[in-house]
Amino acid sequence: MRATLTIERFNPETDASPSREDYRLDLAWRGNTVLDALFQLKHEVDGSLTFRASCRSAICGSCAMIINGRERLACQTLVSDEIDRSGRIDVKPLRQMRVVKDLVVEMNPFWQKVGAITPWLTPKKEPESVNPQQAPHGFHNVDACIMCGACVSACSSLEVSPGFLGPAALAKAYRFVADSREGQGHGRLERLTGHDGIWDCVRCNFCVEVCPKDVKPMEAIIRLRRHALHAGLTQHPGATHITAFMKIVKQEGRLNEARMPIAMVWPSLRRMAKIMPLGIRMWRRGKVPALFKRPIRGIRQVRRLFKMREGSR
Predict the structure, then answer these.
(1) How many structural domains are present in the chain?
(2) Same domain assignment for residues 97 and 148
(3) Which of 8, 57, 111, 263 is the Cys-Cys partner for 244 at CB 3.0 to 4.6 Å?
(4) 244-253 contacts at long range (C-beta below 8 A, 24 or more positions apart)
(5) CATH number at residue 137
(6) The domain containing residue 77 runs over which residues?
(7) Domain boundary at 181, 210, 230, which?
């Protein structure tokens, strides 16, 4: 099978900017992966091509790269599938990371963020036994992460806020928060609810789409938010938004957009003063909905749902 690979090449020692080069290869069979093609290209065509690889079995995560616009493991991606789907093979290095050379990116910032969440158990004073049959279910598969960096490359929040801890680090943090043996769970949550933590995720879902191990980092972040709310950590604007939203819906059966900003900043007079000029301008232009509304029909059923939810915790 003949295939053309378009690869983004960049050597910071000699190049001012990345360039794209086309390579034509005769592959032995349709079962060749993109990683197989890269090795063949390096051995037969251009020995200067640089990329990472190790296990070739989707275990180590070393060969994560962007293939046809999406983060994938090269060892897991068939050339034939990509040609059938897109008609081409376009390969680039992961985003959000400095390119060392060609398809190799600098991973130190990634590991620093993983280290920042204290990636080990801080056991309780008195050891607690864990049923090995129950623990994996409680982790929701976050312990399957292979640290490939695909989710970090796809993360929308990191694109605008480089300090954000990122989906991989936060998913790993959930693994320890969910562990019944963890003795510093509240302290972990306090740190994670701070700047660049769990509330900076915009829930774009890209990390879930590109994860090769079905870890679902965004869902782990949402579970961390729930743990934080249940622990009483509600000072962050993101947490305030959720609690205010739920309170209004419980009272009225729907969102009251006029009450929402007031509920979020109350009782802070300083924060009230900040939003008052905007509120006045909106009122003058007829953009402020009615502050007081009657609850919807069927409000009892809505409140019953809230009561059932509270009773199931």
Answers:
(1) 3
(2) no
(3) 263
(4) 246/306, 249/302, 250/302, 250/303, 250/306, 251/295, 252/293, 252/294, 252/295, 252/296, 252/299, 253/295, 253/296, 253/298, 253/299, 253/302
(5) 1.10.1060.10
(6) 2-104
(7) 230
* Shared-domain flag, residues 212 and 182: yes
Q: Are residues 139 and 176 in the same domain?
A: yes
pLDDT tens track, the chain, 313 positions:
889 999 999 999 999 999 999 999 999 888 999 999 999 999 999 999 999 999 999 999 999 999 999 999 999 999 999 999 988 999 999 999 999 999 999 999 999 999 999 999 998 877 666 554 445 567 899 999 999 999 999 999 999 999 999 999 999 999 999 998 899 999 999 999 999 999 999 999 999 999 999 999 999 999 999 999 999 999 898 999 999 999 999 999 998 888 888 888 887 888 889 888 988 898 888 888 777 888 999 999 999 999 888 876 6
Q: Give per-residue burial for 218-237: e unless 16+ CB within 10 Å, then b.
A: bbbbebbbebbbeeebeebe
